[in-house]
Amino acid sequence: MNNGNFEKSEDIIAGRNPVAESLKSGRAIERLLVSKGEMSGTAKVIISMAKERGIPIKEVDYKKLDFICQGANHQGIVAIAAVKEYVSVDDILCSAEDKGEDPFIIILDNIEDPHNLGAIIRTAECAGAHGVIIPKRRAAGLTYSVGKASAGAYEYMPVARVTNIPDVIDKLKEMGLWIYGADMNGETYCSCGLKGSAALVIGSEGKGLRKLVKEKCDVILSLPLLGKINSLNASVAAGILMYEFTRQRLNIKAK
What we know:
The chain has 9 helices and 10 strands. With 255 residues, the chain is α/β, with parallel strands linked by helices. The protein folds into 2 domains: 9-81, CATH 3.30.1330.30; 89-249, Alpha/beta knot (3-Layer(aba) Sandwich), CATH 3.40.1280.10.
């Protein structure tokens, strides 16, 4: 199957009974797609189950479900499954503690492109980050497309999915992490000390960091832009910044 973000049939759970059983089993579900008008009977029960688990629900046109399912009998209900179970933020912090390392966490503020998310996960794994935090809504999740773009790194990189990014930032600050945001108007990244317990926040592809998220950051880091284009791809910027953290944490000096 190749339908935009829906690249493989294993992502798709079609039909009321299969979706209901997947929800009962606790399988990681990215989102629930419901045909407009399908809000009664068993559909209502399935929607209620999804809400209890905090799974995003979206009403779509029936024909879109036909297109996604390529002829499968979806009965107006389709679930998009995750390729891996999510962890908690505490799990990520415990991972750092178990390794005897200061936590280094990547927070993504509404990254929507699955290829960007996959690339960031891949770089985070290579750079020694302890985990990635993403929001539940208005952002890419751990779909097949993301797994493919990460070149398998998602198998080794813990990913937590949370309801509220600003609340998570507050929690991490209470636990002693310094929060660094990436934005155009900030301190040059290589002039800042980046050692110790830290989280790096990367904003969305089009809008960057949301205002509240930016306000909660302790330091804003910027990359010098010397050409005519005034921004970098989110995954490229994330990669450059992650490796500056890694360089400083490993005490690597330029020769």
